[in-house]
Design goal:
Keywords: Coiled coil, Disulfide bond, Oxidoreductase, Redox-active center, Signal
CATH architecture: 3-Layer(aba) Sandwich
GO molecular function: oxidoreductase activity
Largest sheet: 5 strands, mixed
Number of helices: 10
Distance between the termini: 52 Å
Protein name: Disulfide bond formation protein D
Organism: Falsiruegeria mediterranea M17
InterPro entries: DSBA-like_thioredoxin_dom (IPR001853), ScsC_N (IPR041205), Thioredoxin-like_sf (IPR036249), Thioredoxin_domain (IPR013766)
Order of helices and strands: HHHHEEHEHHHHEEH
Length: 250
């Protein structure tokens, strides 16, 4: 009977709290068996208790993960918000910062583009930082190298043009297609291509990858909004609510 009673006691402890949890060590074998039978009977009559227990357990797990993420963000604030190389947009003097780890080949990153734009427009006080995080194969890496090289050669405006164009680009990032794209944007195409495989570009992407590993980020898009680490695509209205919560907490 004890084997059957254990889940019941777990459910009882989760629902009522540790203050009301019982210690079976004070019971005799006969008492434990009788108690287990009573608990089993009660749970069979009230099966929703098990579902409620698992829901409480899941809520506690999510809370623990959220708290761990906040600690990770705090421990890596400088690299996240002021690394000295990532492109900065939105309101550079905004009271909170939104960081996006993105990949040009990621469909959800593309879906996030209008949502982020909507958030920045409606709020007006959010600073945006873009982190190049190519994780979806060689085409992703080539695209990121091209974007970062454009920034090194042409500055922030050139990067933003390339960044936006690559997120809309539907083809393969070959030398031919990227040269055509660069020429259409009026960039110094030869200089951009000469820079793509440079140590400076390699180091920038590697630093972002190392930061992502420290934050346990393995997918795109991943956002950091204030102190909140948001894993996955979110519509603008949800990010607006999170921004309000971040401000309220100070």
């Amino acid at each position: 009977m004890l084997r059957l009673a254990a889940p019941a006691l777990t459910a009882f402890a989760l629902i009522t709290g540790p203050a009301q949890a019982l210690d079976l060590s004070d019971m005799s074998p006969t008492e434990r068996e009788a108690f287990g039978a009573q608990v089993r009977e009660y749970i069979l009559e009230n099966p929703d208790l098990i579902l409620e227990a698992f829901q409480i357990l899941e809520q506690r797990r999510e809370l623990a993960e959220a708290q761990a993420d906040i600690q990770l963000v705090e421990a890596n604030r400088d690299e996240l918000f002021n690394d000295g190389y990532s492109w900065v947009g939105g309101n550079p003097d905004g009271d909170i910062t939104l960081v996006e780890f993105m990949d040009y080949r990621c469909g959800y990153c593309r879906r996030a583009v209008p949502e982020v734009a909507k958030l920045l427009k409606s709020d007006g006080n959010i600073r945006l930082v873009i982190k190049e995080f190519p994780i979806l194969g060689e085409a992703s890496m080539i695209s990121s190298r091209f974007a970062v090289a454009a920034k090194h050669v042409g500055g922030d405006d050139a990067y933003k043009q390339v960044h936006d164009a690559l997120l809309e680009f539907g083809g393969e990032p070959t030398e031919v297609t990227l040269r055509r794209l660069s020429d259409s944007l009026g960039l110094d195409t030869d200089a951009v291509f000469a820079k793509m495989d440079s140590d400076a570009v390699t180091q920038e992407i590697a630093q972002t990858r190392a930061l992502a590993q420290k934050l346990n980020i393995s997918g795109t898009p991943t956002f950091v909004l204030g102190t909140e680490l948001l894993r996955g695509y979110l519509p603008a209205d949800q990010m607006e609510l999170i921004a309000q919560e971040v401000r309220e907490r100070g």
